[in-house]
Amino acid sequence: MRKQIAAANWKMNLTLQQGEELLKGILANAKTLNENQQVIFAVPSPYLQAANTIVGETKNNFVAAQNIYSKKSGAYTGEVSVEMLQSLNIQFAVIGHSERREYFGESNTFLADKVNIALENNITPIFCCGEPLEVREAEGQNAFVAKQLEESLFHLSSEEIKKVVIAYEPIWAIGTGKTATSEQAQEIHQYLRSVIANKYGATTADEISILYGGSVKAANAKELFSQPDIDGGLVGGAALKVDEFVSIIDALN
Length: 253
Prior knowledge:
Elements: E1 4-9, H1 16-29, E2 37-43, H2 48-55, E3 61-65, H3 82-87, E4 92-95, H4 98-104, H5 108-120, E5 124-129, H6 133-137, H7 141-152, H8 158-161, E6 165-168, H9 182-200, H10 202-205, E7 210-212, H11 218-225, E8 232-235, H12 242-250
Parallel strand pairs: 1-2, 1-8, 2-3, 3-4, 4-5, 5-6, 6-7
Helix pairs in contact: 1-2, 1-12, 5-7, 7-9
């Protein structure tokens, strides 16, 4: 049974004190998770240790880095290495978020290197993919996301790719006023799973969690998560509010 996941991406928000208060509020109010459910908090790098201390041994709650570098160590000022994450007992890292691709020019091949080093060091990649508005309007989304998977993930073995969490981000539905329906979200998730199945087989594809990352909030989480190929959400703004994110956690199947 694949994991149902509510992942919070705080992005570049909150002070340390605000973040600690948010985490404590969510953990105090969220439901007890089932064995196949996980909550993951992707916090800014300066807060990783504090967040991990708060999350501690709570059942199936984890902390993630928002980014890692493709090298293990060296003269890469400002970057975060897998060794640093390991020393903090961080088990997850977001890789290839649309903002990293857009603002920092991260390519599919560069992200493949990040995926490799994460897996080599027992860190689970939360690999982001998704198309911008102009691609969606031209109905080119399937080929676009397939290329992202092929160039960043399809060098992996069957056993390796089963260790990756995929997050689909419809960039055109984030901050544009446009909204993806649950049917549209299910359609692209089903397509992503079919692309993986064509490469690795249906059994492997069915073991991979695929999260939806297009403005998930309390009001739409239950409907989205009820779709057969949507295994949870990568949540931005709504993850910064205790009540909102608790409701999203509660919406996990």
